[in-house]
Amino acid sequence: MSVLSLLPCGAFVMAAGFEGKRAGVVARSVAIVADDPLMVGVSIRRGHWIEPLIRDSRAFSVNVLDPSDVLSARKFADDSARDDDPFDCIAWETLQSQAPVLRRSLAALDCEVARRLDLEADCVLIVGRVLDAKVFGGPTGK
Q: Are 17 and 100 in contact (CB under 8 A)?
C-alpha cells in the first residue's frame, strides 16, 4: 500500500469569474487548512488561465464532484479549450462572492482569496476563507 493512497482524495472543480468571463479547472488537491475562520487550500497547475480571474475577483468556488459526473470532470480538465465558456449548457449559480458554482456538484464552497502561495513547483496554492456553502446532491439532484 502506498502512503499517498491514504491521503484524502476526490474530484473538485475550482471556478472563478470576473467581468463576464468564467473559468473552471479540476483542482489537483483541496484541503481544510484552518478552522477559525474556516479556510481551504486549493492546488492548481501553475499558469492556468483561471489564475487572472481569481486574482482580479479575489474569489473562487470549490465544487465537490460526484464520482460518476464524467461530464464536469471532462469539461473542466486542465486541457479544456480557453476560448469556450465551460459553464455554457451547465446549470450554475452564484453565492456570496459571485464566483460561479456548479449546481450539478454534490456541494460547493464559496471563498474569498486569503493568500496565494507561489510554490517552487508545477502548482500554486490558493488559500480561501469560506464565505458560504451549499449542498446540491450531484448531477441527478438527489
A: yes
As a whole number of angstroms, the distance between CA 91 and CA 133 comes to: 17
Looking at residue 70, its amino acid is V
Query: Any idea where the domains of the chain sit in the sequence?
Result: 10-135
Q: pLDDT per position in the chain (142 positions), as tens?
A: 567 666 667 799 999 999 999 999 999 899 999 999 999 999 999 988 899 999 999 999 999 999 899 889 888 987 655 677 888 888 999 999 999 999 999 999 999 999 999 989 999 999 999 999 999 987 766 5
Claim: this prediction has a pTM higher than 0.85: yes
Is residue 6 classed as helix, strand or coil in its secondary structure? helix
Task: Tell me how far CA of residue 30 lies from CA of 21, 42, 58, 112, 113, in angstroms.
Answer: 23, 5, 18, 15, 14
Q: Provide CATH code, domain 10-135.
A: 2.30.110.10
- Rounded CA separation 90/75 (Å): 10
